[in-house]
Amino acid sequence: MKRLFSNCTKRILNPLFKVTREKQDNLKRRTHRRYHGAWLGTDSIICEESQLQVGDVIMCSSSVNSKNTYLISNASDGVYVHCAIYVGGGMIVDMVVPKIRKISLYELSQDYRYLTVVRCFGINKERQDKIIEFAKLCLDKKVGYNYFGAVVSPLKEYLNYLHHYVNQVGDSYAPKYETKKITRLFCSEFIVECYKYAGYVQRDSRMFKSDKWTPTGLAEDNSIFKFIGYLDLSVLRFVNPSDPYLAGNGWVLTDEGQQHLALRKIESEKCVEILKQQCKQERT
Predict the structure, then answer these.
(1) What's the pLDDT at 38?
(2) Cα–Cα distance measured from residue 75 to residue 96, given in angstroms and rounded to the nearest whole number
(3) Residue 214 pLDDT
(4) What is the maximum alpha-carbon separation in the chain?
(5) Confidence bin at 33 (pLDDT 50/70/90)
(6) Phi then psi for 207, rounded to 5 degrees?
(7) Which single residue of 150, 191, 198, 271 could bond 130 by disulfide (Cβ 3.0 to 4.6 Å)?
(8) What pLDDT was estimated at residue 85?
(9) Sign of the dihedral through C-alpha 112, 115, 119, 124
């Protein structure tokens, strides 16, 4: 019965997701959104668990254990199908079916091909405390999974992009905003609500309404999160060449690419030291 329901759902949703995916792709290319997450630094693209901070968002690629994640990937026209928030002590909190959970980062890594770490530009101790407080609040309430919201989020995300692109407007604010009642959330909706509770995202923001964002949408947007690296629990060879943080620079995943980056980092550090010495001589 469960398999029959799953097959029927796929047959209904696949045509809808195909149309949405094509429109998403076309719009993202017109607005250059595909390249907003481009990683062009000289540092290593590997992030160790010891480098994680409270509030970091863990982006998850296709699932190892579930074949249904391709629906999410196709619908949102991207490689990320899930996201979680790091709360310290090697633990994450995320929204899954049927409700919110708190598990270890290691457990999360067992379900996905690779994990990517991104960090809020404006993270600080006060906001970190607020994120932990919000996560605990949701855990205490045993917030359920927002099935319907997750299904329609790619369409809502596309319409949100389209509205801001066609009208050439930035973010705007609703004068009569009412605080969202936290009863059910899907994964990326939970992440946006965390940062609203922390005060980084304006609660009355029309652009960042939490139910209009997918994991891929958050990954491709460069106004909230910056790329930190691929988690060392995963393996570089699994990283999708279409990953928005590479923006076509898949060569950096190879051994040759990693060696070249290491050399560039050494050269960069030498240049910095030379500049420091020059500054000291000019001051004296």
Answers:
(1) 47
(2) 18
(3) 93
(4) 81
(5) low
(6) -70, -40
(7) 198
(8) 98
(9) positive
Looking at residue 8, what is its pLDDT? 52
- Write down the mean pLDDT value for the chain: 79
Q: What is the dihedral of CA 22, 23, 25, 29, to 10 degrees?
A: 140
- Which H or E element spans position 3? helix 2-30
- To the question of domain 13-252 being in CATH 1.10.260.40, the answer is no
Taking Cα atoms as reference points, which of 170, 114, 109, 135 lies closest to residue 54?
Answer: 135
Q: What are the domain boundaries of the chain?
A: 13-252, 254-284
- Give the burial string for 46-73 (b: 16+ CB within 10 Å, else e): ebeeeebebbbbbbbbbbeeeeebebbb
Lowest mean per-residue pLDDT among 2-6, 111-115, 140-144: 2-6
* Kind of pairing between the strands at 82-88 and 91-95: antiparallel
Structure tokens, 259: 């060696």
The long-range contacts involving 136-140, CB below 8 angstroms and separated by at least 24 positions, are: 137/182, 138/93, 138/100, 138/182, 138/185, 138/190, 139/93, 139/100, 139/102
162-188 burial: b if 16+ Cβ within 10 Å, else e: eebeeeeeeeeeeeeeeebebebbbbb
pLDDT digits (tens, 9 = 90+) for 147-157: 999 988 988 88
* Whether pLDDT at 27 is above 70: no
**Residue located via tokens 């907003």:** 36
Q: What is the mean pLDDT of residues 264-280?
A: 78
The single-letter code of the amino acid at 255 is D
Query: Which one-letter amino acid corresponds to residue 248?
Result: G
Higher pLDDT among residues 1 and 36, named by residue: 36
Say how many C-beta atoms besides its own lie within 10 A of residue 214's C-beta: 28
Q: Residue 171 to residues 18, 75, 174, 204: CA-CA distances in angstroms?
A: 28, 24, 10, 10
